[in-house]
Amino acid sequence: MEFEISENIKRLELHDSLIDLLEINSDSIVLTFDWAKLENYKEGNLDGLILGKCKLVLSGITKTAFEIITGGGTKIIEFPKDFQSRLEIIGENESKDDNHLRIGSLMNYDGKLAWTNWNLNFNKFSLYWNNHVTFEEWTNGTIAE
């Protein structure tokens, strides 16, 4: 892919994104999203971008935890093998630092929608993409393919 960032993951916003492809390996997790928002693209001297399809590579996974939040409370469960088919949409994401990402989403759990938090700790990340538009272009109706 043509463009890349590997610092300040807090700039990445995944609200309303979908995970098109998920690869979980022994020491890395690769997530391909249908789109994302990137604040302050300083590497390209641009304020912010709407990205088309993009790939996030988390390397050196140190810890993961998957939480389900229902009316009955919060519990940590094993990561669902059928996560992608049960995922509705990403609601939010946040990062404490460049070694942590939490993806919050709605998921079908026991026949009902439940909120989930997938907490990922890693040694480094890289975000790759080919196409983007500026916030201004996006506001005017241009779409990043």
Structure description:
By secondary structure, this protein is mainly beta. It has one domain (3-139). The protein has two helices and 14 strands; from the N terminus they run βββββββββαβββββα. The model has no long low-confidence stretch (mean pLDDT 94). The chain is globular, with a radius of gyration of 15 Å. It has a five-stranded antiparallel sheet with strand order 1-13-7-4-3, with no helix packed on it. 6% of the residues lie in helices and 59% in strands.
The helix content, as a percent range, equals under 10%
Which class best fits the helix and strand makeup? mainly beta
The SSE order reads: EEEEEEEEEHEEEEEH
Q: How many discrete domains? A: 1
Proportion in β-strands: over 45%
Strand order in the sheet with the most strands: 1-13-7-4-3
Tell me, briefly, the overall form. globular
* Largest β sheet strand count, sense and barrel closure: 5 strands, antiparallel
Instruction: Provide the residue-averaged pLDDT.
Output: 94
Total helical elements = 2
**What distance separates the N and C termini?**
13 Å
Task: Outline the low-pLDDT stretches.
Answer: none
Computed over alpha carbons, the radius of gyration is: 15 Å
DSSP, total strands: 14
